[in-house]
Amino acid sequence: MEGKDHTGFRNKIVRFLGLKMLDMYVIRKFLSSFLLAIILILAIVVIFDLSEKIDDFLESGVSLRLILFDYYLNFIPYFAVLFSSLFAFIAVIYFTSRMAYNTEIIAILNSGMSFRRFLVPYIISASVIAGLSFYLSDQVIPDANKVKLDFEEQYVKRRPVRFKTTNFHRQIEPGIYVYLQNYSNVSKVGYQFTIEKFEDGQLVSKFFADQIRWDTTVNKWQARRYYIRTIDGLSETLEEGRVIDTAIALHPDDFSMRLNIVETMSLKELDEFINKQLMQGETNVVAYQIERHNRIAFPFTTFILTLIGVAVSSRKLRGGIGLQIAIGVVISFIYILFIQFSKQFAIGGLLPVMLAVWLPNIFFLFVALFLMRFAPR
């Protein structure tokens, strides 16, 4: 009974979308080929990663349960998304070229179906893969990366990667700037600390301390040998002392943030992080902006490579299926190289970040449309 209900529900969806038996055939071929390819590559990636880290696992004495569920279960989604567009492309070339060599495509087009209509199930399949890729990268992978990175720091890398903590400058609130000559992540002690407060562009107070220390009992900074200079128009007052507690909007974690922290953020969190960094006076946010735009642009790669794959593999070539797969792999690697070069232009300031990230998609969309002109009609 349950099987009949499932089949009836599927048939309703098919009728609602106006799909035909041929569409379901192509969708099934596309998604099954993609799933098989992605499972095989993920298995290979896991084996290579395990062979590289097995000595660390044995040395640390970590349990098999933690390795499987805290590390590899959270390791797989990232690489599944990373390889999704490439293996969607390979899947398209593989099963479409087989259809072409079995003269299935010619028969379909001779039946009166246009090539554009023939593309519909490919676009639907690409939409499923791209939509799942975007969902995973925004909602699943950030949380998975938190667990994975914590595992790596504890059992593999042993030492977290930290930001530089000398000559620290930051705007912690609008009009309030802090400076710290150096800071120790281990002792949570900083030296030569300054807070400057501005109103309407004018300095109104300046706080200076030889040393600040994070007090874990009250979760506040304790300043030692301090001076407070207050400016009110033409008059100034100076206060000094040995020890004072301060409640500034700064936490020790701000000095020990992972360099790859953006991997643990959703798009909303990443936007807030970038805005906060800009407000605090951080100028080197290009890498974060690239990550943000890339998360939106990357799923569109699946659509573009799908169109190119259909255009390349829908005709018979003398070299056979192997030649078509080889052509597809070359095109995909050129695409990947273009993406990397384009990002470097953004990092070097030669192109706006948004244009640099989207430029490969724009260029290869025109390539796809050009190749479509030579597809069978």
Describe the main β-sheet briefly: 6 strands, antiparallel
Number of strands: 6
Cα-atom Rg, whole angstroms? 28 Å
Number of domains: 2
Order of helices and strands: HHHHHHHEEEEEEHHHH
Spatial order of the strands forming the largest sheet: 1-2-3-4-5-6
Shape assignment:
elongated
How much of the sequence lies in strands comes to 15-25%
Contiguous low-pLDDT stretches (5 residues minimum) are: 159-164
Estimated helix fraction: 55-70%
What is the count of DSSP helices, taking H or I runs of 4+ residues? 11
The pLDDT mean sits at 83
Walkthrough of the structure:
There is one protein chain. The protein is an alpha+beta fold and 377 residues long. The chain contains 11 helices and 6 strands. It folds into 2 domains: 244 residues, no CATH class; 92 residues, no CATH class. Helices cover 61% and strands 18% of the residues. It has a 6-stranded antiparallel sheet, with no helix packed on it. α4 runs antiparallel to α10. The longest helix is centred in the N-terminal third of the chain and has 40 residues. About 2% of the residues have low confidence.
